[in-house]
Design a protein that fits this description.
This protein has 506 residues and is of the alpha/beta class. Among the domains are: 137 residues, Resolvase, N-terminal catalytic domain (Rossmann fold), CATH 3.40.50; 153 residues, Hect, E3 ligase catalytic domain fold. The chain is 49% helix and 15% strand. Strand 5 and strand 6 form a beta hairpin. Helix 12 runs antiparallel to helix 13. Bound molecules: zinc ion.
């Protein structure tokens, strides 16, 4: 018979759960193959005094067991001496031994030796890497990249004590972690759509991370978060191919830890579409979702985004901007043969049954015309205002340039003085020069900013929009709309535009 052995000690908050260990081991089995489970919860691996492990040993000795599967070697024992004795015992009773993480053939003397050597190095490596990750984590904290805000879905925040003091980390939240695992399986294995997953969870009355209902963008955001992944080399490669930066060495990706993805948000929902200004860090907690499954989900999500963009851009240049004023969900045109007369519907109502806005929110053609006219008006106001803005800017540029000239003059004088002075004064003077040079560089940077300011870009894009609009294709119009507008709230009798550039602010 096949035996599965799992162990989790209570003293280590961030260790992988018994249930996950067993689940991973079961994947090694052929379909329907029977097995016996042995699990010790709250026992350390430093000795063999564990009730279920003793039961397993008894079953080995009585010849019932032919194969033992465990998540990792250290589940059996953390002691090299105990371990090599056990391997001998297993060998005597014809028991083969598998770990889901490390692959060996324990049937040969070489395999056994390898096993022992691996144990020693694994222990050493684990300790070194754990230390490095903690150090890294602390230095990130200093740079303001500390784990902040609410815990990611499926997790809760806990504190652990280390050599360097308290360390905040995530641990699986028993109330939500199963839903999180299920979500990955539904999307990566069962190939359900994001919307279908959201509907399923809503039917089961499972609350979303915000305690409200699920929709496809919430499901997508949770699936995109690498906090749950057991990061390995493939995960490193995936994020590298996306242009991500790393705070860890590639070799740190052997622990199966979760990851934090930090980065600037570029507009709404674009968070994961461009990762060139994102940074990935290995987190101090162990992951709970197999990296293969996680990556299958990412690849599906990547494809999904591409198809979405293509599909949407054929219909309207208002892509992604239209929202229901009542509930905030996206508003989409319902298909009809004539594009102009497509009616707009709130997806909160049609897909997620959480909005009670009545009927439709107008036709696409009417809304497009209104928004276009408002863009024209905005551009007119902007060009009136631009003259004023540019005058102040050129005055400021001038002031900065004068100040820079002044500094240059002082630097030259100081250098002259230094050549005729003794060592002590020369030292003082050179410090002074360094100070002035810093100030000069700061001024240069400011001037630079003023000369290639936002005004120039905007002027190029929308200066003559009234005359160029009709010659633009859908992508061109989309670009202008996204440049100027962050969101459009649709009500029955009103359209409220949230502009990216507010005249009153500057
Ligand atoms: Zn709505």
């Amino acid at each position: 018979m096949v035996a599965i052995y799992a162990r989790q000690s209570i003293d280590k908050k961030d260790s992988i759960s018994i249930e996950t260990q067993i689940e991973l081991c079961r994947r090694e089995l052929a379909d329907g193959q029977p097995c016996e489970e042995y699990s010790d919860k709250g026992y350390s691996g430093s000795n063999l005094n564990r009730p279920e492990f003793q039961r397993l040993l008894a079953d080995v000795k009585s010849g019932k067991i032919e194969r033992i599967i465990t998540y990792r070697l250290d589940r059996i024992s953390r002691s090299v001496l105990d371990f090599s004795n056990l391997v001998d015992l297993f060998g005597k009773h014809g028991v083969s031994f598998n770990s889901t993480q490390e692959k060996f053939d324990t049937g040969t003397p070489m395999g056994k030796a390898m096993l022992n050597i691996t144990m020693v190095f694994a222990q050493l490596e684990r300790e070194t890497i754990q230390q490095r990750i903690r150090d890294n984590y602390y230095s990130r904290g200093e740079k303001g990249m500390y784990l902040g805000g609410p815990a990611s879905y499926g997790f809760s925040i806990t504190e652990t004590h280390t050599d360097q003091g308290k360390l905040k980390l995530l641990e699986p939240n028993p109330e939500t972690v199963e839903t999180l695992r299920r979500m990955y399986r539904m999307y990566g294995d069962d190939l359900m759509s994001l919307g279908a997953i959201a509907r399923q969870f809503n039917t089961e009355k499972i609350p979303s991370p915000q305690g409200t209902i699920w929709d496809s963008s919430k499901v997508s955001r949770v699936l995109r978060n690498p906090v749950a992944v057991q990061a390995g080399a493939e995960v490193y490669r995936y994020y590298r191919s996306q242009g991500c930066k790393f705070t860890n060495e590639p070799s740190d990706f052997i622990l199966g830890h979760g990851c934090y993805l930090y980065g600037k948000r570029e507009g709404n929902e674009r968070k994961y579409s461009d990762m060139t200004n994102h940074t990935l860090s290995i987190a101090p907690h162990e992951g709970i979702v197999d990296s293969g499954l996680f990556l299958r989900c990412q690849e599906r999500l990547d494809k999904n985004t591409q198809i979405d963009n293509r599909k949407r851009s054929h219909i309207t240049w208002l892509t992604g901007l239209l929202k229901c004023g009542k509930c905030g969900h996206s508003v989409v045109p319902k298909s009809s043969c004539n594009t102009k007369y497509r009616y707009l519907y709130c997806t909160g109502k049609t897909s997620y049954a959480c909005c009670d806005v009545e009927g439709n929110l107008g036709t696409l053609g009417t809304v497009e015309d209104i928004i276009r006219d408002r863009i024209f008006r905005w551009a007119e106001r902007y060009s009136d205002l631009r003259v004023g803005v540019e005058t102040t800017q050129s005055q400021e540029r001038n002031r900065l340039a004068c100040r820079r000239e002044e500094i240059d003059l002082r630097i030259r004088k100081l250098i002259d003085m230094a050549t005729e002075s003794n060592d002590i004064t020369a030292h003082y003077l050179s410090e002074k020069v360094t100070e002035l040079e810093q100030e000069r560089r700061a001024l240069e940077a400011k001037e630079e900013k003023l000369s290639v300011g936002r005004c120039d870009t905007l002027r190029k894009e929308v200066g003559d929009i009234k005359n160029t609009w009709d010659s633009l294709d859908l992508a061109g119009k989309s670009h202008i709309a996204a440049l100027l507008i962050s969101r459009i709230n649709l009500y029955h009798n009103e359209i409220v535009i949230e502009w990216n550039y507010d005249f009153n602010k500057k």
